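Database export, one record per block. Field names are fixed; values are copied verbatim from the stored entry.
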Amino acid sequence: MVSPQYAITRVSLGGEMESREDCLREAAECDRLAGLANTRATRALLGLAAFQWRKLAEKAAERQKTREPWASKTMSPSCSDQRRMSASVVKPDSA
């Protein structure tokens, strides 16, 4: 498990920030460990770490959107895009 502080430090030192998926994986691991923790303080600390990982995941998702604005439309067209594409398809006359 990588601490959220380590991830923030890596970014501030010019390292690459983890992806959204990496951050969510770390959050899930913190949640899992919190479930196994023996003390309330440890559970609270791991819960806080999971919360911070999820915040980093949100930031990573936003960063990915700004870097790859085309990706979301290419991967999954919106309903209006799908309607526009289907409306432009020429259908043969049924004779």
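Remark 1: Residues 40-67 form the longest helix (28 residues).
Remark 2: Confidence is low (pLDDT under 50) at residues 73-92.
End of record.
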